[in-house]
């Protein structure tokens, strides 16, 4: 698979496909590599029942091409994962991306070789001026949160690596370990299908119900007409959506929730990260509404958070998560006081000595968000976001778009803006007769050290810093 390119893109998800398109459109010779047998990135891997985006589809898709935008129509406000995957296939077909995709091609390592990058795959090596590491922050699922996975005599599935042909779960006794966003989506989809569903919860999660109306021709026509306004809004709001912040005072939060619960999403509450009073007030409102939905003190004790740390962990959006526990065939077990010890052949063992007998286990245990979790050895690149969430010193020509706002806004909008910035920056290099650019040592980005919930300005803040950097002539980079 040897070859010389202007750019190698690693990852064929929403970020990598967009990078392939933009760079190739400028006449560069580009190839996009992915270890998976199909494009889609996270949406190829997260095929579990109930998976969906928590951003409205019309704000999530590519916004740079009116034709591309007009010719795709979403079937609902928050599309399911399989529909997002169909959209990405549509994009690849329409833009003729397949001819430069190399799937089932895992990248092993990448290192500087003179003034170029040498990228080693399982099938050979490539050389390129630029390397774009578009593998994102959801590439390493926590597959072994407790020991014994290989001992279980039934299937053990992870929501982040759901197989294309998953085992049939209907009628089985299924245990779900975890209550993060993927569990919040999965449980309502499995309830009523499996024989019995048991959810093991250690730390309850704040959730917001998200109304998800079906879209017909009128709704699609309406959002298509708003493309220009939508593009402006997603680049200028902290949430990266068409919804501005609504915080008008602590006393208004209950009213805002009753108008639309998503108005209390952390990405829409300006100053939440630095305002304990606002966090406490929002927590109280959401907690009360969750208790009202459950109408059961025993369930509330297991499923409703008691702390005032609202927004310091991702807040999940749900469509029937709490209501699923009203079913006789759905059970929740608190494992904070009786922790999971290990997986046994017959099920899950708890510290109290009991074993929960199961036919199948689903791990909804999230991802390892530590540095460089995509399995690619790049000396000097630890996977942290870096300057503008893109680049680190000592690695000329390497860009790794990774929305610093992970899970606290429309990451797709942030990533698209970052890729557009890279494309424009490389174009200026060619126009100025230069070969590469490298982040300067000591160049500071307030988003680099901030946890995602506290990234200054959210999505809009990240993209504004990108625009300011370009307008100032790239002072945080050495161009040569």
UniProtKB/TrEMBL annotation:
It holds the Pfam family NAD_binding_8. GO terms for molecular function: oxidoreductase activity. Keywords: FAD, Flavoprotein, Monooxygenase, NADP, Oxidoreductase. Its cofactor is FAD. Transmembrane segments: none annotated. It comes from the Bacteria. InterPro entries: FAD-binding_Monooxygenases, FAD/NAD-bd_sf. Its EC number is 1.14.13.-. Belongs to the FAD-binding monooxygenase family. This is NAD(P)/FAD-dependent oxidoreductase.
């Amino acid at each position: 698979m040897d070859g010389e390119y202007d750019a190698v893109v690693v990852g064929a998800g929403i970020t990598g496909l967009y990078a392939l398109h933009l760079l190739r459109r400028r006449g560069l010779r580009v190839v996009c590599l992915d270890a998976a047998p199909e494009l889609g990135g996270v949406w190829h891997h997260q095929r579990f029942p109930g998976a969906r985006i928590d951003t409205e589809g019309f704000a999530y898709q590519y916004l740079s091409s009116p034709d591309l935008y007009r010719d795709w129509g979403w079937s609902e406000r928050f599309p399911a994962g399989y529909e997002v995957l169909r959209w990405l296939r549509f994009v690849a077909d329409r833009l003729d991306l397949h001819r430069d995709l190399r799937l089932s091609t895992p990248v092993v390592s990448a290192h500087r070789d003179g003034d170029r990058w040498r990228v080693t795959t399982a099938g050979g090596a490539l050389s390129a001026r630029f390397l774009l590491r578009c593998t994102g922050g959801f590439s390493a699922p926590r597959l072994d949160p407790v020991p014994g996975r290989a001992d279980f005599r039934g299937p053990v599935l992870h929501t982040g690596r759901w197989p294309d042909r998953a085992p049939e779960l209907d009628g089985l006794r299924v245990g779900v370990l975890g209550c993060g966003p993927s569990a919040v989506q999965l449980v309502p989809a499995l309830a009523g299908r499996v024989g019995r569903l048991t959810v093991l919860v250690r730390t309850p999660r704040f959730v917001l119900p998200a109304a998800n109306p079906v879209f017909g021709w009128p709704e699609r026509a309406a959002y298509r007409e708003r493309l220009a306004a939508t593009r402006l809004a997603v680049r200028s709001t902290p949430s990266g959506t068409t919804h501005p912040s609504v915080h008008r005072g602590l006393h208004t939060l209950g009213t805002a929730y009753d108008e639309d619960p998503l108005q209390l999403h952390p990405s829409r509450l300006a100053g939440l990260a630095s305002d304990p009073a606002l966090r406490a007030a929002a927590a109280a409102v959401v907690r009360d509404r969750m208790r009202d939905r459950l109408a059961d003190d025993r369930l509330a004790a297991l499923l409703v958070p008691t702390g005032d740390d609202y927004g310091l962990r991702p807040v999940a959006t749900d469509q029937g998560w709490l209501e699923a526990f009203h079913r006789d065939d759905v059970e929740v077990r608190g494992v904070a006081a009786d922790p999971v010890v290990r997986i046994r052949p017959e099920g899950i063992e708890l510290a109290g000595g009991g074993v929960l007998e199961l036919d199948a286990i689903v791990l909804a245990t999230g991802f390892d968000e530590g540095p460089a979790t995509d399995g690619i050895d790049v000396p000097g690149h630890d996977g942290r976001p870096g300057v503008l969430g893109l680049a680190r010193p000592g690695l000329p020509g390497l860009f790794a778009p990774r929305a610093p706002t992970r899970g606290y806004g429309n990451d797709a909008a942030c990533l698209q803006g970052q890729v557009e910035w890279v494309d424009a920056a490389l174009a200026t290099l060619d126009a100025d007769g230069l070969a590469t650019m490298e982040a300067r040592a000591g160049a500071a980005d307030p988003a680099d050290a901030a946890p995602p919930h506290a990234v200054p300005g959210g999505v809009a803040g990240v993209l504004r810093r990108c625009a300011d950097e370009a307008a100032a002539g790239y002072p945080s980079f050495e161009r040569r």
